[in-house]
TrEMBL record, chain B:
SUPFAM superfamilies: HD-domain/PDEase-like. Keywords: Membrane, Transmembrane, Transmembrane helix. This is HD-GYP domain-containing protein. InterPro entries: Cyclic_di-GMP/3'3'-cGAMP_PDE (IPR052020), HD/PDEase_dom (IPR003607), HD_domain (IPR006674), HD_GYP_dom (IPR037522), HDIG_dom (IPR006675). It comes from Streptomyces phyllanthi. Residues 239-434 form the HD-GYP domain.
Length: 431, 455
């Protein structure tokens, strides 16, 4: 079953596409040269698309080309006559062609990507083309015209960010605010490069003709290359940290997969609580390495469960872990979280609260066997006076409920046990 | 370059004289002083932004070149210089670079000399590029937006810029950094031509837009993508350095736990690399083998220290525990994608050619090639380095021992390749952890071992 907002966005995009196509078929294609050139550019940009771990805009060249065509006023000094419908049609056709290899290889959410591309181009073209074709911008030459284009593109990308956040919210169920914040932050990075390139391409084509397209595609490709290399090194780094975290498991201090499970669950809880992307990365690294202090113990803690140790001992292990993390050269903020993971929650930063609660849950749920999750949550709720922050525990309960719903295919609320569903002291009804 | 050799000072003085000669026609210039001032101010401003926003971006490798935008010898803001070269007369274009380069902070001493050198180097190179552009009639093509004919003079100017920078940088590498003369120029030109060409295109677009009725504002938008890529490349370098520091800390913990003098793992990495090069493997595989050597014993993190450092003979039970370390190591690094076949090397580096090794008792060519390489490298460094309970043996004795065991323990092909590599290059392992001044992210030595000493 699709989320209504996904259906709405896709429906709007489909309607726009059909209307634009019908209009173009009826009236024919104006100025085939520019249409073909921009079409080729968008196809090339889409072919070079990649699935970045962090970056929102995965086909910057395609986006810049599409926006430049929507904002194209003149070609080599001659005014253009293509309207909104043609801009949308050309971009849609090119994006569809460019998507074929990605669909064939079964990668990426192509439908969302296409819908966003189409709606943003339609928006930019609707704002610009009627004004230009009616001659309303004739006296706006020089810097005011440049500023107008910049303002239009900024507006367009803001709308695109909202659209992306809506779609992500519908797909993942994460809170809207932090998603939008992450989208807007991404705008400052590659989004600004896309905007600037779109404006420059449209202006440069107006001055020198279509030769401007290949000339100015290369700098944006350089930007894309930089982002790809950055994403690759980040992936590698994350894998290395996960390996380091596995050292405690191999040395027999913690059960296999513990660090990874705590990291995944912590990330989900952090996301639910509205942490930003950089904070989530710190949280994930800290969760992966939270047990590393145990390497310095003389004898392993029985099955690695630190949550049942005396508080002083827990804190000692946490401090040792922080020291080890500092020595590995990982971000100092990670070390702080690892160090503070055993403190009472009121003295902790929020990441450390999450790691503490999730770690305790993971250990307790594992020991208790079947029905463990419920008992563990119950115990955590009893500890909210001092050890675990109530909000974090409730967020954890919601995340677990969602995961259950996803794995069992039942919408949340239908079959979930009362202890997971009911807030506060509801755990008493546990089966 | 703590003390600058007299030759290098002389060289810098010559380049400065050349730069002054380039700037000499300035007083007679009746050109667009507004454009010169704007470009120079922007260049200086961008230089300052770079300093504040991209900390640690420049590799402290040599005196003049910047390591940054994908090996570009200029900054991300170099389209400004190239736009100047395409727009202005040669002397004015050379002037654009000077204030920014003089005001930029130099990371290492002698700072004054470095600043002067950078300014002179850029001025000469930009002058040459602008001169070429004019000689080929580029000025008119920019003014009349005559595409694609504007690309030819611009391309020639980029080539000249790159060539002059290569020439000057190689000279300073040879004289001030004492890089051997035949190595000084190697790879400089091919490495920098691609990024400089991209910056050249951006510069050309700036120049054209600057001349058009849209004016300088449109030209400045060209800089934004360049800024973003410069910023991301800086992040990339930072993250990569952090990653390397983490791996280094990891293997140091292993070395100390194992009772080696520090650097054993890195030396095994270097020896593996030497063998791989000698066997004619491609660069990517050589790099993977270096990592295989560096991480070969990482599984020892999972073995109790008291077993690793035990002085007397080991009981069969203890031996079995220690012999688990290749499997532990493989289990640890299994998820690291870029290691590729290095993971097999970590699992099999204790196999022997006659099948008497562990963990699986593979024989001959059943053992992966990379594992046979690492086995030789590991045995050699174990013999030639001091451990907590044993003296180091001389290289010649170790080589004899390797040759004696070739065929039974080691692959003779690998042993021969290693012997050849030793004859050619000698054994002078440089361990980065030992080098002072590179310890930015590297933790103080010995601490991980202290943390684990009780385990």
């Amino acid at each position: 079953m699709r989320h209504p907002s996904v259906v709405l966005v896709h429906g709007c995009a489909a309607l726009t596409a059909v209307a634009a196509l019908a209009h173009t078929l009826w009236y024919g294609l104006d100025e085939r040269g520019p249409a073909l050139a921009f079409g080729v550019l968008v196809v090339a940009g889409e072919l070079a698309r990649w699935r970045g771990a962090e970056e929102r805009e995965s086909a910057p060249l395609g986006a810049a080309g599409a926006l430049a065509y929507a904002l194209l006023g003149a070609n080599g000094g001659e005014p253009t006559r293509h309207g909104v419908a043609q801009a949308v049609t050309v971009v849609m056709a090119a994006a569809l062609v460019g998507c074929v290899p990605h669909v064939a290889r079964g990668r990426g959410s192509t439908a969302d990507h296409l819908a966003r591309r189409l709606l943003t181009v339609a928006f930019a073209a609707v704002c610009f083309q009627p004004l230009y074709n009616r001659g309303a911008l004739a006296e706006w030459s020089g810097p005011p015209y440049v500023l107008l284009l910049v303002a239009l593109l900024v507006l367009t990308t803001l709308c695109d960010a909202v659209l992306a956040a809506v779609l992500a919210r519908a797909r993942t169920g994460w809170p809207f605010g932090p998603l939008l914040r992450d989208e807007l932050r991404a705008l400052l990075g590659i989004g600004s490069a896309v905007c600037a390139t779109g404006v420059v391409m449209s202006l440069a084509v107006a001055v020198v003709g279509l030769w401007a397209l290949p000339v100015f595609s290369l700098p944006l490709l350089l930007t894309q290359l930089a982002f790809r290399r950055y994403a690759a090194v980040r992936t590698t780094y994350r894998q290395t940290i996960a390996s380091l975290a596995r050292a405690t498991e191999i040395a027999g201090y913690t059960p296999a997969g513990h660090a990874r499970r705590v990291a995944e669950l912590s990330r989900a809880v952090g996301r639910e609580l509205g942490l930003s992307e950089p904070e989530l990365t710190v949280l994930e690294y800290a969760a992966l390495m939270h047990d590393i202090g145990q390497l310095s113990l003389v004898d392993p803690v029985p099955s690695g469960a630190t949550a049942v140790l005396p508080a002083e001992e827990q804190r000692r292990i946490a401090l040792l872990g922080g020291a080890v993390v500092r020595q590995t050269g990982v971000d100092a903020r990670v070390a702080v979280v690892v160090e503070r993971q055993a403190d009472p929650y009121r003295e902790q930063p929020v990441s450390a609260r999450i790691v503490r609660a999730v770690n305790a849950y993971e250990e307790k749920a594992r020991e208790a066997g079947p029905g463990g999750p419920l008992k563990a949550l119950e115990e955590l709720r009893l500890g909210t006076a001092r050890d675990y922050q109530p909000e974090v525990v409730e967020s954890l309960a919601r995340v677990l409920l969602n995961q259950r719903a996803v794995t069992s295919g039942v919408p949340p609320g239908d079959s979930a046990p009362a202890a997971l569903r009911v807030k506060g002291g509801g755990g008493r009804t546990a089966v | 370059m703590g003390s600058v050799p007299a030759w290098a000072r002389g060289y810098v003085a010559c380049v400065v004289m050349a730069a002054l000669a380039c700037l000499a026609p300035l007083p007679d210039l009746r050109g667009p002083w507004g454009a010169v001032g704007l470009l120079a101010a922007l260049y200086a401003g961008c230089e300052q932004i770079t300093r504040c926003r991209f900390p640690g971006r420049r590799a402290p490798r040599d005196i003049g070149t910047y390591e940054g935008s994908g090996g570009c010898p200029l900054g991300w803001h170099s389209p400004l210089l190239l736009a100047g070269a395409f727009l202005l007369s040669p002397a004015a274009a050379a002037l654009v670079a000077v204030p920014g380069a003089l005001l930029a902070r130099a990371e290492r001493r002698p700072r004054g000399l470095r600043r002067v050198w950078r300014a002179a180097r850029l001025a000469v190179a930009v002058w040459a590029a602008s001169r070429t552009h004019r000689a080929l009639g580029g000025e008119d093509t920019v003014v009349t937006h005559d595409f694609p004919y504007a690309l030819a003079p611009a391309g020639a100017a980029v080539l000249v810029l790159c060539a002059v920078l290569t020439l000057l940088d190689g000279g300073i590498l040879a004289l001030a950094e004492r890089v051997p003369v035949r190595n000084a120029w190697r790879g400089l030109f091919p490495r920098s031509i691609a990024p400089v060409a991209v910056h050249g295109l951006a510069g050309l677009m700036m120049a054209v837009l600057w001349h058009s009725h849209h004016g300088p504002l449109a030209a400045l938008l060209v800089l934004l993508p360049m800024y973003v890529s410069g910023w991301v490349f800086a992040q990339y370098h930072r993250e990569r350095a952090a990653h390397q520091a983490t791996i280094r800390a990891l293997v140091q913990a292993v070395d100390i736990k194992d009772g080696y003098t520090r650097g054993h793992s890195e030396r095994v990495g270097q020896a593996s690399m030497m063998i791989a090069r000698e066997l004619g493997m491609d660069d990517e595989r050589v790099e993977v083998l270096r990592f295989a050597g560096i991480l070969h014993d990482v599984g020892k993190l999972g073995v109790p220290t008291r077993l690793l450092r035990k002085n007397g003979p080991l009981t069969p039970e203890e031996r079995r525990v220690i012999e688990l370390h290749p499997e532990y190591g493989h289990e640890m690094v299994r998820g690291i994608g870029f290691l590729g076949e290095a993971r097999a090397a970590i699992l099999h580096h204790h196999e022997r050619m006659d099948g008497s090794g562990y963990p699986y008792g593979l024989a001959g060519h059943q053992i992966p090639e990379c594992a046979r390489v690492v086995a030789v490298a590991d045995a050699f460094d174990a013999m030639t380095s001091t451990r907590s309970y044993g003296r180091a043996r001389p290289v010649a004795t170790a080589v004899e021992e390797l040759e004696r065991c070739a065929g039974t323990h080691f692959d003779p092909v690998m042993v021969q390749a290693f012997v050849r590599a030793l004859e050619r290059h000698g054994w002078r392992p440089a361990v980065t952890a030992d080098a002072p001044g590179q310890s930015g992210n590297v933790p103080p030595q010995g601490a991980p071992a202290r943390a684990e000493a009780g385990s």
